[in-house]
Amino acid sequence: MSVRLDKIDRKILAELQSDAAQSLDEIAKKVGSSKTPVWNRVRKMREAGVIRQNTVLLNAEALGLEACFFVLIRTSEHEADWQQKFLKALRARPEVLEAHRLAGDIDYILKVQVTNARAYDEFYQALIGEVKIHNVTALLSMEEIKSTTALPVAME
User: Fold this and answer.
1) Has residue 2 got a pLDDT over 90?
2) How far is CA 32 from the centre of its chain?
3) Which stretch of DSSP H or E encloses residue 68?
4) 3-class secondary structure for 21-64?
5) Helix, strand, coil percentages, rounded to 5, for the chain
6) What are phi and psi of 100, to 5 degrees?
7) Secondary structure of residue 134 in the 3-state scheme
8) Packing angle between helix 24-31 and helix 35-47, nearest 10 degrees?
9) Of all residues in the chain, what percent carry a pLDDT higher than 70?
10) What is the pLDDT of residues 64-99, one digit of tens each?
């Protein structure tokens, strides 16, 4: 379900996505409004679920997490019990940054951030020890070309 947003709401969202640490005064100035209406709009967008949370983005390399793997998973298991066990295993692993269930030949894709190949292998061994998986293919990202958390909110 999408929420109706006007041009100012979208400008506010773009500003928050670029730097959520900005003051309401700064945002209001940039979107051509004043502090109280911006605060009210932000509150309404939070209540409507448009804004899920505020967070900070960390530099993986600075934290020693230099290896990013995309893990393609095929499974012959499709029962609810297996899926719950699989999802529980993924949610318990902080190195899994993203997990998606796919249409097509591959059932799931994971984005896994670890220190090195050995750490990936430890993750892999732990995962296959917890849940039965038919086939796993791990692809090492050689270079991150684009990464963003910003959704396209600008009005055309």
Assistant:
1) no
2) 30
3) strand 67-74
4) CCCHHHHHHHHCCCHHHHHHHHHHHHHCCCCCCCCCCCCCHHHC
5) 40, 15, 45
6) -130, 140
7) coil
8) 100
9) 98
10) 999 999 999 999 988 999 999 999 999 999 999 999
Do 93 and 111 contact (CB within 8 A), yes or no? no
Q: Strands of 96-101's sheet, edge to edge?
A: 96-101, 108-114, 67-74, 135-140
The CA-based angle 60-107-147, given to 5 degrees, is: 25
Nearest to 82 by CA among 134, 136, 137: 134
Residue with tokens 């393609």: 72
Alpha-carbon distance of 124 to 61, in angstroms, equals 21
Q: Give the pLDDT score at 3.
A: 82
